[in-house]
């Protein structure tokens, strides 16, 4: 099981690297994703 957490303040640069939030989440291949 793969768990990923993100602080939303640091999420914008990661989204811009992948083009969209959907692409970012797909690339992580995580079972659970938490935002704080």
TrEMBL record:
What organism is recorded for this protein? Nymphaea colorata
Q: What is this protein called?
A: Endonuclease/exonuclease/phosphatase domain-containing protein
Q: List the InterPro entries.
A: Endo/exonu/phosph_ase_sf
């Amino acid at each position: 099981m793969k768990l990923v957490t993100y602080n939303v303040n640091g999420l914008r640069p990661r989204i811009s690297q992948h083009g969209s939030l959907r692409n970012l989440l797909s690339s992580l291949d995580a079972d659970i994703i938490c935002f704080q």
